[in-house]
Amino acid sequence: MSQPLEWGRRYLMVRPDHFRIDYVINPYMSTQDQPDPELTLKQWDSLRQAIVDAGGEVEVLAQRPDSPDMVYAMNLGFATADGRAMLSHMRFEPRRKESLTAADWFTGHGFALGRPGSDGVGPHFESGDAFVFGDSLVVGYGPRTEAEALKHLAIEWGIRVRGLRITHEGMYHLDLPFCPVDSTHALVYPAAFDAASQAELFGIVPDPIVLTDDEAFAFSANSIVVNETIIMPACSPRLHEILTGLGLRVVVLDLTEFHKAGGSARCLTNPLDFDLTAITAPGG
Ligand code: ARG
């Protein structure tokens, strides 16, 4: 029997007042295709409102003018309901200033801060690669997070960590090919991973909902579940039937301005309430 997720009711979002494409660090970005500021804000606010309508809470952080990708709050750090936060150590230098503001925010809100590395020293870790699911922290590594960071998380917090090696450059964070839906179901796009990690993925997820190429590249797995609502940037009729069959209310939002820099609903929201209880290793 599946149970609702234990997390995903409280989020941090960054108001997109300085969202631009100044540099290219993933296959979706082009400096020739800039977002429209007004539409950006409208789409962002529809997401914030949908979370509130679903019974969730949203904390809002102002965007640094020097950090255009900071709108993708999912990457600011991995935060837990009991007040721990692992700050991201971004792979690409232009995103590293975000961590200065994120560190102040987490500390100012009572989170005890850990960091796998900073300023290019130590393993890279981007929190868009990490989810609690089943008995472990599932972490994608390869394009952004480095394998070394998984050891850091396991040791610092005494938790079980399972790594999935991402090999698809268009699926550069785990939140693009993987979305926990409830305690046993997750949206998955196996082609994002190497063969060993595909097998591992099917070991981790008891009831996988496998996405087609079209669904995956419409960012359908970059969705968030808030109570009994799933908020998605795209949902095919086939997926709609599966998700409503699980008792979910499906809300589809136009977030296409944010797709221009390679992110959608999940990337724009950072859960503040991950629960590590079930994944704490014996003696950890
Ligand atoms: N332009 C951003 C980057 O490449 C997009 C981040 C998307 N966020 C996510 N959690 N997948 O870093």
Which properties best describe this structure?
284 residues; alpha/beta; 3-stranded mixed β-sheet; globular; binds arginine
Report what the structure shows.
There is one protein chain. With 284 residues, the protein is an alpha/beta fold. Helix content is 24%, strand content 21%. The longest helix is centred in the first third of the chain and has 17 residues, at 37-53. It is globular. The protein contains seven helices and 15 strands. It starts with 9 loop residues before the first strand and ends in a 13-residue tail after the last strand. The strands form five sheets. It has a three-stranded mixed β-sheet, covered by helices on one side. It has a three-stranded mixed β-sheet with strand order 3-4-5, covered by helices on one side. Arginine binds at residues 25-26, 29, 69, 72, 74-75, 95, 128, 173, 175-176, 261-263, 267.
Share of helical residues:
10-25%
- Put simply, the count of helices is 7
Strand order in the largest sheet: 2-1-15
In oligomeric terms, what are we looking at?
A: single chain
Mean pLDDT comes to: 97
Strand content: 15-25%
Radius of gyration: 17 Å
Protein name: N-dimethylarginine dimethylaminohydrolase
Keywords: Hydrolase
Pfam families: DDAH_eukar
Organism: Kribbella steppae
Summarize the structure.
With 284 residues, the protein is of the alpha/beta class.
